[in-house]
Each structure stands twice: as structure tokens, then as C-alpha cells.
Write a structure and sequence with these properties.
The chain is mostly helical. The protein has one domain. The chain has helices at residues 2-27, 35-60, 65-73, 88-111, 116-139, 143-154, 158-161, 169-179, 182-191, 195-215, 218-222, 225-228, 232-242, 249-264, 274-292, 302-305, 309-336, 345-348, 350-357, 359-378, 393-432. The longest helix has 40 residues, at 393-432. The chain is globular. It starts with a helix and ends in a 14-residue tail after the last helix. The model is unreliable at 436-446 (pLDDT under 50).
Length: 446
């Protein structure tokens, strides 16, 4: 009888205790080589969720400009950079490229090859199982669309044809498309005598390409963002500058640059005076802050009262480039400083490890939980009854959405993600033999 009651108790409590155990197991994993990766990935997850909490209001008021402008006006100018937290995706791009490139370069150093088939096999088991779960769950909301357009998603080309079913799949599709090139680029760079120079050239070409895409569509830079937000030109902007790989290449290339620099100069140290270090950090943080001030949402901003097409075109071209470049600069500065002990308390916090390990399911599934959180906080499912939204609602919605998303993500990590990664590794070993493959413990975080 006692055993039965104990079993029932365990069964009833498992929805609470099991996620806690999963989280504890993640947190207790051995430290990784580069804690900054967990820090940036965890921070990026929080940034994306907070951005979409705000953007849910934009979606709600998209047909009522006055209500939307009133909400934007309630945001202090100094905090308006939060409205550009979608740039966290650029951090994801850079991290993904770094982790995979660095892993491939380490394999090349040992074997003078990179194992392209093994690379793609690992990518398949890392991406596809959880992706299929997400596709089926989101597709249940519109089965006809799933049947009609699902193959675009399965081939990761829905961002090209605007046929998306999962709201955030466009970024994963960009990464997958880039993966088709990545191992060959890494192999070329590994054999090159001047890989850093080649990457600087590619970075410059990616910026030129972004400029060309914007310039060839004049309405993109001739219309300021808030005016285009809910107009047809807004879709043109997103399809041209946001959802496609051609205009999002820069952080992916910078991730490769990060990997090549660490690979070529693993033990190099630099000595920087405290004043110089302070100046460099101040400059980089200023660049990050001002890049986050674009797009400009406040209609009373001088950016709009003195609207200039050249300035707008320049900002459209460079704001993501500056953001990613400044972050990479700080990463390299911190890594190569002679006084750096690699034990920064900020990056060592175990919470970043947790968020980093479940970043993939959190990125996929935070959308519906943001909607649920807004319904709970506002107390209604009828948007017509909502006349205004207080800025003070944002923290409650954010924390509730974060908790619900994290809860589901822990289960998905245990039931799907980690399980299929293990299966993939077993197949890798069976097919290719055991060695330090590109996707080692460092790369598992991607």
C-alpha cells in the first residue's frame, strides 16, 4: 500500500519535480571552454522574448495608429533600445557560426580534413527532431496551410517564398542555408595562408550586398520605419532586408572570423592599460547602444522631423553590422587580455548555462506563451475591449511568458532534443568511427 501511494505521489508531483531535475542536471554539467557562449546565448533568448512581448502590442494595435503611437510614446526614450532587441538574432547567427566553424577547424588541425558528411549528419539530428515537433504543433492551427505549404518549411526555404508556418523559422532557415556553404568555406580558410584577410573581404562584401539590396528598392529607405510598419512597404522591407540570408550574412561571417582568430592564435595575449581598456569598452558599448536605437519608433524623434534618405539608407545598411562587430570586438578584447582570468562572475552564472541549453525550444515556442501571458495579464481575449496598454504590464507578461516557455522547453529538451542528439552521436560513431568530431561538448550548446 505504501509503495502504491508513493508511486501515486511521485506521479502527481512529476510535472513539478521532473523539470527541476532536468534543470539541475543541465546546470551541473562541467564548465565549457568559453562561458561567454552560454552568456550570450542565454542573454539573447531573454532579449528575443522581451522584444516579442513588446511587439505583441504592435500587432494588437497595428490597425489603430493612435493607440500604437500612444504606447510607443509611453516608453522612455532612453529605453527605446529594447524595441531593437530583435538584434539578438544576429548574436545567435554569430554564435552558431563560431561554434560550428571552430569545431570544424579543430578537427582539421588533427586530421587535415573536416568530415563534411559527419557535419551534416550531426546538424540533421541537432535540428530536425525538435523542428518537426514545432512544425506539427504550429501546423495544427491551420492544417490546410500545413499540407499546402509544409514542404517549404521542411526544405527550409519558407523564408524565401514567404510561406512560413512557424513564426520564427526564418532565422533557422537562414542558418541551414548557410550550413550548405559553411564546411566548404571553413576548409578553404583552413588551407589558406591568410584566412583572416579573406574573412575581412567577405565581411566587406556582405555589407556591400546589404547596401545593394536596400538601394535597389528605394521605397525601403525613402519611407521611415514607423510609417512603413503596417503598410505594404513594411512587408517589402522584411522580405528584402530581414528574412533572407543575403542581407543577414555579416554576423555569420563574423562568427567565422571569431573562430579563425581563436584557432590561429589560441594562446596569444595582449596587454592593454586600464585607461585604454576603459575607452575601448566605452566606444563598443556606445556603438551597441546607438545601433539598438534603430529602427526609430518615436514619431517625434528628430530622425523623422528632419528625415534624410541618405542617413536612413546608411542606418539600414550598417545598424546590424555595427551591433555584431562591436560585440565581437568586446569578446576578442576580453579573451586576449593578459590579465583576463576567464572567471568573469557575469558569464559564470549557471543560469546562463540553463537558458543556453534550452535556447532552441525556447526560441521555437515562446510565441504562444507570450499570447497566453498577455491574455492572463489583460484579463480578456477580445482585442476590441483593449483601449490602452500600460508599460507596467510588460514585466508581468515577460516573466510569465518566460516561466511557461522555460517549463515546456525543459520537457522538450529531455524528451526530444537531448535524446535525438544522443541517437545522432551513436549513428555518427557507427558510421564514421569515434573521434573528436566537430560537434564536441563545446558545440552541443548550439
Amino acid at each position: 500500500m505504501y509503495t502504491f501511494l508513493s508511486f501515486v505521489k511521485t506521479l502527481l508531483l512529476s510535472p513539478i519535480t521532473k523539470p527541476v531535475l532536468i534543470a539541475q542536471n543541465i546546470i551541473q554539467q562541467p564548465d565549457k571552454a568559453y562561458p561567454v557562449v552560454d552568456f550570450l546565448k542565454g542573454l539573447s533568448v531573454l532579449m528575443v522574448i522581451l522584444f516579442h512581448v513588446f511587439f505583441a502590442v504592435f500587432f494588437l494595435f497595428k490597425k489603430d495608429v493612435d493607440k500604437l503611437n500612444a504606447f510607443i510614446a509611453s516608453i522612455p526614450t532612453e529605453l527605446s533600445f529594447i524595441l531593437a532587441f530583435d538584434k539578438a538574432v544576429d548574436i545567435f547567427f554569430m554564435l552558431s557560426s563560431f561554434l560550428l566553424s571552430y569545431g570544424l577547424l579543430k578537427v582539421y588541425s588533427k586530421k587535415q580534413t573536416i568530415g563534411i558528411r559527419r557535419f551534416y549528419l550531426h546538424r540533421f539530428f541537432r535540428i530536425y527532431p525538435l523542428f518537426l515537433v514545432a512544425l506539427l504543433l504550429y501546423g495544427m492551427a491551420d492544417l490546410d496551410k500545413l499540407i499546402k505549404d509544409g514542404w517549404y518549411s521542411l526544405l527550409f526555404i519558407e523564408n524565401i517564398f514567404s510561406k512560413g508556418i512557424i513564426p520564427v523559422q526564418w532565422s533557422l532557415s537562414i542558418e541551414v542555408q548557410f550550413y550548405l556553404l559553411l564546411p566548404f568555406l571553413v576548409l578553404f580558410l583552413a588551407k589558406s595562408e591568410h584566412p583572416i584577410k579573406w574573412l575581412l573581404v567577405l565581411t566587406g562584401l556582405s555589407v556591400i550586398m546589404r547596401f545593394a539590396f536596400a538601394y535597389q528598392t528605394p521605397e525601403i529607405y525613402q519611407t521611415h520605419w514607423i510609417a512603413a510598419l503596417n503598410q505594404p512597404i513594411g512587408k517589402v522591407y522584411m522580405d528584402t532586408m530581414y528574412y533572407v540570408m543575403e542581407t543577414r550574412l555579416t554576423p555569420l561571417i563574423l562568427g567565422m572570423l571569431w573562430a579563425v582568430i581563436l584557432w590561429r592564435y589560441p594562446t596569444k595575449k595582449i596587454t592593454v592599460s586600464r585607461l585604454t581598456n576603459l575607452i575601448l569598452w566605452a566606444v563598443a558599448l556606445t556603438l551597441i547602444y546607438w545601433s539598438l536605437r534603430f529602427p526609430v519608433y518615436h514619431v517625434l524623434s528628430p530622425f523623422y522631423s528632419d528625415f534624410n534618405e541618405v542617413v536612413n539608407l546608411t542606418a539600414i545598411t550598417l545598424h546590424r553590422v555595427i551591433f555584431s562587430g562591436a560585440i565581437l570586438g568586446l569578446i576578442l578584447l576580453s579573451h586576449y587580455q593578459a590579465s583576463n582570468s576567464n572567471r568573469n562572475p557575469l558569464t559564470q552564472w549557471k543560469g546562463w548555462r540553463l537558458l543556453s541549453e534550452v535556447a532552441y525550444p525556447m526560441y521555437f515556442f515562446h510565441f504562444p506563451f507570450i499570447a497566453i501571458a498577455w491574455v492572463i495579464v489583460l484579463g480578456t481575449v477580445d482585442p476590441k475591449t483593449i483601449t490602452e496598454i500600460s508599460l507596467f504590464n510588460i514585466p508581468f507578461v515577460f516573466l510569465l511568458a518566460l516561466f511557461l516557455t522555460l517549463y515546456l522547453s525543459l520537457w522538450l529538451n529531455f524528451l526530444v532534443e537531448a535524446r535525438f542528439i544522443r541517437i545522432g552521436k551513436q549513428i555518427e560513431t557507427k558510421w564514421f568511427g569515434g573521434h573528436n568530431e566537430p560537434q564536441n561538448r563545446l558545440n552541443k550548446s548550439k
